[in-house]
Each structure stands twice: as structure tokens, then as C-alpha cells.
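Methods: example folding runs. The two proteins below were folded one after another, and each record is reproduced exactly as written to the output file, sequence line first and C-alpha cell line second.
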Amino acid sequence: MLATHIQIDICFMIMIFIIYLNVRKSNNYSFDNKILSFLMILVIFVLFFDALGWFFDKRVWDYSEIVLYFVDIIYFSLSCIIAFFWMIFVYIKLYGNMDMGKLKWAFLAVPLTLFLILNITTPFRKLIFYVEDYTYVRGSMFALQTIINFGYLIASSIIAMIQRKKEIYQSKKDECLYLALFPILPIIGGVLQIFEYDLNVLWPAASLSLLLIYINMSNEQISLDALTGLNNRGRFVKYINSAARNLKCGKRLYLFMMDIDDFKNINDTYGHNTGDEALIKTSEILKKFFSLKHSFISRYGGDEFAVVISLNDDTQADRVIKEMDKFVESYNENITSGYNLSLSIRYSYTQGKDFDLEKLIAEADENMYKEKRIHKRI
């Protein structure tokens, strides 16, 4: 049994380390990926100290009780720290930053701080655990670490589900859902281990959840444009095909094609870094403008973008273009750069019957380039 527990911990340590290396090698080593990498390192260490705890428990050696205290103090401390940082990861993943306010984060860290103090002093007070006759024994306040750990995990799930209700895009809803479901395996493993101490399921279960998170994040990155963070062309094709098949009767599915006016001139005059900046700014404009319009935004290629949206008629579509032009003008007034952004935008639509994607794109492209030629003459 002892050897099996240690082997399980070692296997999951190796698995998490391999995932960690893949995350570090990722082209998109963003802030949320850095937090995820840090979590993986913590999980590797907690698995290591879990294995040491199993090894030293009931070992009658010189100083083995001291070693067991040291190992278990670190183990329980890491467990609580991981739960807290998981909450931080979820918040950053959902909102892109930690701008909740220092006071709120400090308040959320109070349970962690309280537990760490009690845990570090446990050799003297025996509240969390103690060692008796070379054997680990749960203390009178052992349940506190379970309550705090589960509390952080459940709070993270609640945050994710609240955000899911606010999201418009299905991809973001799916992201919120898998973040909310992450704690299920660790909580089940934790409950089983509370009632059956000899089981070793908590951290293997948490490791499997991390693996699922990594798989979901990898799939997400495959579908996103690396520079702008918008959906890429492949995801656009899948989405519009699905949307056209499921279009409600009486509705039209509009494809807006747009590109940046004088983009080549921006690149040639200010350099490719500024060109990339223009693409990023354009993506931000599109995200803000279409955020409440139940639309699908993608970078189609180069400086060309595509937006798919269900509307009733051309009157609504023309209104979208007018409002978009005003939005871009307002954006230019509020920024200071050596150039102004402007977009050539036109559309085509399908009613779902005899849907032909190539024809739809070609028609929208042709209309857009007509508009672009008008812009050049102005």
C-alpha cells in the first residue's frame, strides 16, 4: 500500500512536470499562463511532500517525528496556498487582471494567513495535526484546512458561473464552465480522503483536473489569433457554417467584412510594430463595439476582419455600419498616435437556404473593396 501511494504521487508529479514544460514553451506565455505554471510547480511540490509524508509515517527512526512534522506542515501549507492561487488564476483568466483592489485581495487572504499561522505552530499546539508514536494524527482543528480549501475552490466556481451568465459568446461561456467545474474532482477526492485516510486520491484528482484545464486552454489557443486574441479563420469557418445551418426562420445571417484603410502606409511609415499595434487596436474596437450585439468576431487574415451577426434586414445592417463609423471616429478622438484608424466595411447575407460560404465571402469582399476605393478617392 505504501509503495503504491508513493508510486501514484511520482507518476502524477511527472505528468504535471511535462505539462508545465509545455506551458512554458507556449508562444502565448501570458499572465494567466504564468499563474498556471506557478500552480503546477506548487502541485508538484505538494505531491512530493505527500509522498514523503506517506514514507515517514510510522517510521521509527531517529528524528523521524521532527521530519514528519516538517513534511506535513509544508504539505498542508501548500494545499491551502494552491487553493488560494487557483482563485487568483480563475479571476485573471476571466477578467485579464487582478484589479479587484488590494483591500479585497487582502481580505480574501485572511483565511489563508490564519491557517498558515495555526499550521506552523501545530507542533506546539497540536491543532491541525500532531505526531504521536511516530504516527501522523489529525488535530482538533483539522477540518479548518478542509473548509478553507473547499471555500476557495467553491468561491472560484461561483465567480466563474456568475461571469458565464454575463458572457455573450459561446466560447467564453464554455471557458467559464470548465473553470467552474475544475473543483469537482479535487473536492470528491478530498471528501473520500477525509473519511478514508489510507486512500491517496486528493492530489491525483487535482492533477487530473489541471490536465483537463491544460487541454481546454490548448484547444482555445488553437482557435485564437495569437496577435489580436480574436477567433481565427478556422474557427470562423466552423462558426458560420454552424450558424447558417441553425438560422431561425425569417432571420438573415450577415457577414461583415472589413479591413484597415491605408494599412500598408501605416506599416511603411511607422514600422511593423506600429502595424501590429493598429491590428490590436482594431480588434479592441471590434470587441467593444460588438460586445452587446450577439456577434462573432474573427481576424480573417492580414488586416482583414470578419463579423457574423444575425439581423432582420439591410436597414439594421446599414445602421451597424453607421454606428461603427461613429465609434471609430470617437476612438480616434480619445487616443494620441501618429495615425487615425478607419475601416472599410461592407456586408453580404444568407437566409440559410442553399448556403454557399465561398459565395458569401466573395460578395462581402467585393462590396468592401468597392467601399475601400471610395475611401481612397476621398
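Second run, written to the same file directly after the first:
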Amino acid sequence: MHFLHVKFACDGQPFPSLNGRPGFTLSQCRCSQNIVVDDLLPMIPQPAYDERVECVLDAARALAVWWNPGSISLKVQRIVDKSFMALTPKAVAFAYAFFRAKCMHVSIMTAMVPLTARLRHSSLSGWPWDTTKIIEYGWNFGRRLEWPDVAPAVQKANEHSRVVVVVPEVLHRLKHCHHGPKTEIFYYQ
């Protein structure tokens, strides 16, 4: 499987020879055996804390679930339940940035791909929707991210059941709406 495929599980595979460059071993890189959700989201409670992250898809799914609305306990249940499917371009981008920082296979292969190149990813079997564009957009966005720079933003994200409503002042009839503990309403001219 290609190292940039979202289902690639790093298990010390040798790096192949590319463009006349000889291949080499990367037996010390075994990310799929070592990474857990805690490495990605340190504030997450048990039992999702110890859930294994074997590939970019697992990391993106965990981030997409964590960033979706809902209670923390519901999100933990969904992260542990591997049959629950969630994927967003933002989550894929942050997952690729995370794996570029953690996995030598993904890091080296990403460096070998020209900046103008586009990732043509195949669709994922078993998913109820077309994931190709989600992965392609996430890849393009993720190439510009560096994990050490974005990790604090990921870890501090507090998007649990928060709703933001932006209302133009022309709709003055909605001024009776007041913000609550989980809702913010902003009016603009």
C-alpha cells in the first residue's frame, strides 16, 4: 500500500527505491503499534484515551468525531466504536500533519511529492459516501500545516455542542433571541 494512502499502517516496512534512488530500511518506525488517541488529543477521557491510531484515517476519524457537536461521553463512545464513520477535510489535514511529524514513511514520501502535485486517492470501501474529494482537499490543506504549530490549537479546541449564530441587523425581529450557555448570537450591520 502507498505510504500516503489514508489506510497505510506503518509497521517498519522498507522504503522502496524511487527515481533511481536506492531503497532503505525503516524498521525502527512502527507508528501503527505505538500511537494512541492520547497523542493526538491529550484531554480526551478514558476509554478513548488508549484507543489505537494505526493510520491517517483513524486519526482523521477521531478528530472529526471530537470536533462534531455532541456531549463528551457520546464522542468517546463514537471514537471507541470503529463502525461509526466521520470524516472532514479539516480532520484529514490535521491527521496528515500529525503523521508527517510522527511517521518517517509519511514524512519522507510527502517530501518527495512535488508541491504542485495533486493526490488522487481512491475511494474507501465500506464508507456510505464518496471520500475521494474529502481526502484530496484534506491532503492539500494538510501539506501547509506543521504539527508542532497546530497541536496547541487542536488540543485546546472546545467545540462541544456550541452554536454560533450570526444575524444581520436587518432581521431586527430576531433581537429577542438571547445567547445561552451553549449559544452565541452576533449581530452585524
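Comment on the second run: The radius of gyration is 19 Å.
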